[in-house]
Amino acid sequence: KDFITNSHHVPVTEGENVFKKIDIESEYAKWALGGNIFHIEVNGVHYNEKAITKAIDYALEKDIPYIRVSHPIATCMNCGHSTGRFMETCEVCGSNKVENLAIVTGYLSTDVTHMNKGKQDEVKKRELNIE
After folding, report:
1. CA 42 – CA 50 distance, rounded (Å)
2. CA-to-CA distance for 130 and 43, rounded, in angstroms?
3. Around 70, how many Cα atoms within 13 Å sit in the side-chain half-sphere?
4. DSSP 41
5. Where are the alpha helices (DSSP H) in the chain?
6. Local confidence band at 54 (pLDDT 50, 70, 90 cut-offs)
7. Which of 70, 56, 71 is nearest to 26 (CA)?
8. Pairing of strands 82-83, 98-104
9. Which of 18, 27, 108, 113 has its CB 3.0 to 4.6 Å from that of 55, i.e. a possible disulfide?
10. What is the pTM for the complete model shown?
């Protein structure tokens, strides 16, 4: 692959169940004295609010100090169609002028194509932790 998962995170390609991911990463969070963040990738089209709330509560019980819940957002620059998942081609008008919004390494990008090859590869291979 074209990227390295940093710190003590479960690799983004695993799509690990959020509670198992919390159990694994919480063991190391206390050692990250410079700070750390727990990432939860969710479905941006169909939010499971109860599952997200349970996951946040569980992470806090496990002393994870900082939690980020994120989902992809794609917007067609041709017709304006927007969805909570990445698109290569607009599912409405067929345009390939699509911007995919994501947070990678703590930076919000207006389009992942502005990121380096490794970050683009990581974003494409991310698996959801909550369906």
Report:
1. 12
2. 7
3. 21
4. E
5. 18-29, 49-61, 117-125
6. very high
7. 56
8. unpaired
9. 18
10. 0.69
Token pair 């169909």 is found at: 46
Token pair belonging to 120:
């683009």
* Selection from 106, 130, 131 nearest residue 119 by Cα: 106
**Tens digit of each residue's pLDDT (9 = 90 or more) over 72-103:** 889 999 999 999 888 999 999 999 999 988 77
- How far apart CA 125 and CA 63 sit, in angstroms, is 28
Crossing angle for the helix pair 18-29 and 49-61, to the nearest 10 degrees: 20
Model pLDDT, residue 30: 76
Cα(103)–Cα(108) distance, integer angstroms: 4
7/70: higher pLDDT: 70
